Amino acid sequence: MASESRIESDGLFNAAEVTTSGRPVLRRNEVECFLLSSVDLDSEDDPPRFASLRSGNLILTTHRLIWIPSSQPNASLPSSLPLSSITHIFSHKKSIKSMFHSPRIRFQVDSVVVVTVVFRGKGDFDGFLAKLWECWRGRAWEEDEKSESEASSGSGGGTVAQGLYGNDGTVRMVGLAGILRKEQEQWESTDKSLQDAFQDLNALMSKAKEMVSLAEKMRQKLLSAPSSQNGGGDDEEMGSKEEMQQWMLSVGIISPVTKESAGALYHQELSRQLADFVRIPLEQAGGMISLTDMYYHFNRARGTELISPDDLWQACNLWEKFDVPVMLRKFDSGVKVIQNKSHSDEEVMSRIRTLVTKTETLRTGVTASDAALTLKIAPAMAKEHLLSAETKGLLCRDMSPDGLRFYFNLFPEIDPTDLHLVKDFGTYGEWVKATSLLSV
Amino acid sequence: MQKLGDFKLPQFFNYPPYFTLQPVRDTREKQIQLWKELILDFCKSQKVFLIGVEEDFPLFSNSAIDRTLSHEARETFLSAIVGEGRAEWLDKGRRKCLILWHRIQDWADIILKFVRENGLEDSVMTVEEIRSGTESLGTELEGIDRTILMRALKLLENKGKLALFKGTSADDEGVKFSV
């Protein structure tokens, strides 16, 4: 996931992890708030250190300022600055002088270094400043520390309190009843948070983060459950668990790229985020997924920040410009799909070849749904693969009242000067054997 | 492998894609070639001179695998034979096709050979005698399609090998050989 190994922190900046497509890797509970392009970082106190931080994208999150060099080869690495280390943000002085140079923000870090952020490009500079103030004052990082320390003290307290009574004086449940009771309590609290979440949209928005972590927790639980319970486990239960897992997985993007947060770079950033996101659905779909399916998965994961089909289309088209491991592909039939760059047609073709040269399928041919089962892909995709295998001359078709079937193409092997000749070797011979077995 | 009368069908006659007109060019070309050869072989061995596109030509369906050629496929295969000069459409609507497993020129040569072998160089015969006379029994000329025979005879007449004349009955014509 993270392409950059952690470089040494120089005391002021930390190396920022980015995904292979160049999106920042956010930490737990961190939410992306704003993005500006063509930003230089500068300081009068320590110019050499800032020399390389020129014309990059500056991303503001609830926890950090992240500076990422723009796409061209750049000597500098992605760097981040925790908002917690900012000790003062200088107010924006309106002077005659300020009207002539690029807008800038100055803030003090660790009460020592004054950093100047210079905006060379266009963008909502005032909006950024307002958000920076908001995030800095919001102190989201303190909440994390608090919850972490609570969590550790909670579990610590449990071990300290021995006997029948808990620290707070209530009767501690022990044994099976205790476990059941605890489970019940957990369910009640889960139920409550679910109810709160659905009360209205605003509540849902504020609960989004919690919901995602809840979903993740439930998924983990589901994953571990089958092993702890009786090993057999009936199929229906397993099926519903898998389904549940699917839902949980698709709840996922905590910080979707929006027009508000990314502005002019909306499509670019969306494109990068999409490239990161598609990996899992793509893997499940067998290396290729239709654009329509992806639209559904992506929007589902984005929750309320839905994108339009056109946005998705543009985001996919931008992949050509970035070094991402996925690509958009258009079949001759007009079907558009997303596929891994590593997903090679040769491999699919060789799997189709193996499929259609089995004794059974040599005789009966295959339908798109047969191929879908074997290749573990969607029937529509399987049909595309079969059609392209036909175009390559690997397969040929049989149209009958029962529908369209594909057979291994025997035509090239048949000798037109001797219609009755069947060579012992070759697939034609195998086909003759396979069909004669049946007629005997 | 099943037979049609005394005609032995090739193995690929039971290959279902053989009965679907293939959309991919290379595959289709090979398929057309195989149909061309099979139709000509069959017509030659069974002395079939005329194929009606809409009629039940034995090769056009295979009950063993429950497949029948579409109208488009039949017309495509027959047109391919026509394109090679081995058949002719008898009507503009392309419903009847005359199969020439021997070209007219070859038929003319067969007639000349027949005339020489039977010492008929200066004789007179009716057209019907050539098709069904005792001399032609067991030769390729036995039961030859009348249209084809007449065209071969006309070709020979143009070369001065024979003269055609109206016979005594209105429906028969006489041939005076002068080889």
From TrEMBL, chain A:
<keyword id="KW-0653">Protein transport</keyword>
<dbReference type="InterPro" id="IPR036388">
    <property type="entry name" value="WH-like_DNA-bd_sf"/>
</dbReference>
<feature type="domain" description="GLUE N-terminal">
    <location>
        <begin position="16"/>
        <end position="148"/>
    </location>
</feature>
<keyword id="KW-0963">Cytoplasm</keyword>
<comment type="subunit">
    <text>Component of the endosomal sorting complex required for transport II (ESCRT-II).</text>
</comment>
<dbReference type="InterPro" id="IPR036390">
    <property type="entry name" value="WH_DNA-bd_sf"/>
</dbReference>
<dbReference type="Pfam" id="PF11605">
    <property type="entry name" value="Vps36_ESCRT-II"/>
</dbReference>
<dbReference type="InterPro" id="IPR021648">
    <property type="entry name" value="GLUE_dom"/>
</dbReference>
<comment type="similarity">
    <text>Belongs to the VPS36 family.</text>
</comment>
<dbReference type="InterPro" id="IPR011993">
    <property type="entry name" value="PH-like_dom_sf"/>
</dbReference>
<protein>
    <recommendedName>
        <fullName>Vacuolar protein-sorting-associated protein 36</fullName>
    </recommendedName>
</protein>
<dbReference type="InterPro" id="IPR037855">
    <property type="entry name" value="Vps36"/>
</dbReference>
<dbReference type="InterPro" id="IPR040608">
    <property type="entry name" value="Snf8/Vps36"/>
</dbReference>
<comment type="function">
    <text>Component of the ESCRT-II complex (endosomal sorting complex required for transport II), which is required for multivesicular body (MVB) formation and sorting of endosomal cargo proteins into MVBs.</text>
</comment>
<dbReference type="Pfam" id="PF04157">
    <property type="entry name" value="EAP30"/>
</dbReference>
<feature type="region of interest" description="Disordered">
    <location>
        <begin position="144"/>
        <end position="163"/>
    </location>
</feature>
<keyword id="KW-0813">Transport</keyword>
<keyword id="KW-0967">Endosome</keyword>
TrEMBL record, chain B:
<dbReference type="InterPro" id="IPR008570">
    <property type="entry name" value="ESCRT-II_cplx_Vps25-sub"/>
</dbReference>
<dbReference type="InterPro" id="IPR036390">
    <property type="entry name" value="WH_DNA-bd_sf"/>
</dbReference>
<dbReference type="InterPro" id="IPR036388">
    <property type="entry name" value="WH-like_DNA-bd_sf"/>
</dbReference>
<protein>
    <recommendedName>
        <fullName>Vacuolar protein sorting-associated protein 25</fullName>
    </recommendedName>
</protein>
<keyword id="KW-0653">Protein transport</keyword>
<dbReference type="Pfam" id="PF05871">
    <property type="entry name" value="ESCRT-II"/>
</dbReference>
<dbReference type="InterPro" id="IPR014041">
    <property type="entry name" value="ESCRT-II_cplx_Vps25-sub_N"/>
</dbReference>
<keyword id="KW-0813">Transport</keyword>
<comment type="similarity">
    <text>Belongs to the VPS25 family.</text>
</comment>
